[in-house]
Write a structure and sequence with these properties.
single chain; 267 residues; mainly alpha; Heme Oxygenase, Chain A; elongated
Length: 267
């Protein structure tokens, strides 16, 4: 080839209009759809919605307030700790995948979500420690398969990421963090009396992180950066109801397994 001669490829490249093909890097919507005041107004509306869901929960879910009572069924309590640890272990996989999808939409939301996940990632160990205090070894925990309802929740996360986006996954965390901060202190105070304060150190540590690090506020900031339209706001409300429905399946499954079955065997 003579000096200065161009290849066919380079000449085509130079003649064609150059268009940047890079997409999904979270740079298209740097200004939130909701300004600060609108975000706070929506959050207050969402909190009121969750409060109504909590009332409905206590009215319809069997044994919903059992762990807040003076006497706790030991089998129910241990199985709930087992399932909580498994739920954290399973969902952290989906929530880690969600980080990549969030980063494609909003680097600001991704930064918040990454920090939140860093703080929550190993909290399964806190519940496993309380399991040991309740007489359940790590080997027994590992040998216990999660309930179907927990698997369905994990599958729902995968569906959301594949077909609807990460907002639904983040909505779950806001729901549970809001409820935990509001209700967990009352439950833990009851468990101190029924189970013993020394036996719930892991759960107390988990709750302190949620409250002291303001996890509801942290997750809300991620939600604010992910909301792009009025449709997203309506979807957020739907996600909260759907997540509560799946969690209700778990508590019914737990009740049927550890309470109803015991009653049937005793009859």
């Amino acid at each position: 080839m003579k000096p200065g001669a161009s290849t066919g490829f380079s000449s085509i490249f130079l003649e064609a209009e150059v268009v940047n093909r890079v997409k999904h890097v979270g740079l298209e919507h740097r200004v939130p759809f909701l300004h600060a005041a609108a975000s706070e107004k929506l959050r207050a509306e969402i909190d009121s919605l969750i409060d109504r869901q909590i009332d409905h929960w206590y009215e319809t879910v069997p044994y919903a307030a059992h762990l807040e009572g003076k006497t706790v069924n030991s089998e129910y309590y241990r199985r709930h700790l087992i399932e909580t640890a498994w739920r954290i272990r399973l969902l952290r996989v989906s929530e880690s995948k969600a980080l990549a999808e969030i980063a494609k939409r909003s680097p600001e939301a991704a930064q918040v979500w990454a920090n939140y996940e860093r703080e929550e990632m190993l909290h399964d160990e806190l519940f496993i420690q309380d399991l040991a205090r309740a007489g359940v070894s790590r080997e027994q925990f590992l040998a216990t398969e999660p309930y179907l309802s927990t698997k369905l929740l994990t599958g729902f996360f995968s569906y959301l990421l594949d077909h609807e986006g990460p907002l639904g996954v983040v909505a779950y965390s806001y729901l549970v963090e809001y409820v935990n901060v509001k209700l967990e202190p009352k439950k833990l105070q009851a468990l101190k009396d029924s189970v013993g304060e020394a036996n719930i150190a892991g759960q107390v540590s988990h709750s302190h992180t949620d409250i002291n690090d303001d996890h509801p506020g942290e997750v809300w900031q991620a939600i604010r950066h992910l909301i792009r339209s009025d449709d997203d706001i309506q979807n957020l409300k739907r996600y909260l109801a759907e997540h509560q429905a799946v969690l209700a399946m778990y508590f019914k499954e737990l009740h049927d397994d550890k309470i109803l079955n015991q009653q049937l065997k005793a009859a």
